[in-house]
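Researcher: I'd like a structural prediction for the single chain below. Treat it as a standalone chain; there are no partners to consider.
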Amino acid sequence: MYLKEIYLENTGPISKCHVKPRFDDNGNPLPVVIVGPNGSGKSIFLSYIVDALMEFAKQPFRDIVPPDGLGTPYFRVIHPRAIRSGESFSMSLLHFKANNDNLYYCEKAGVLDPETYSPSVKSLFTQVWNWPTDEAHKNVSANRKTVETEMKNGSHAFFPAS
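Model: Treating it as a single chain, here is the predicted structure.
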């Protein structure tokens, strides 16, 4: 499973970030280097990738994240404090590809009407685009069997700063 695209807007210190990792002629990923001073959003960028993988994995597996008694637990909690200062919303959209299957992730906090947002971004992430205007929202679109196969056979790692 490879990350094909990540779009972040108004999250933490990140105003807008749109990255499409590159691949060589054989379809192998090229290295991605994330640099910046402390507090510039590097860990936030990575945390969305990890959260997407966790959300995908929760579909076929029940022991990925221990239950917290409040319903479905999250790796990343949707909270208004994550919204960039002075903005009314934050949004993250990710697209992964596993063989011929597309997997999508969306998280939205704050107030954002999906109908009034940029059609060019909307067209890239239609599978996870429908969110309520005023409520926090998290959604994934992925084939359960594809996720199960990827998680059992693939290699995924995250090394948090702490």
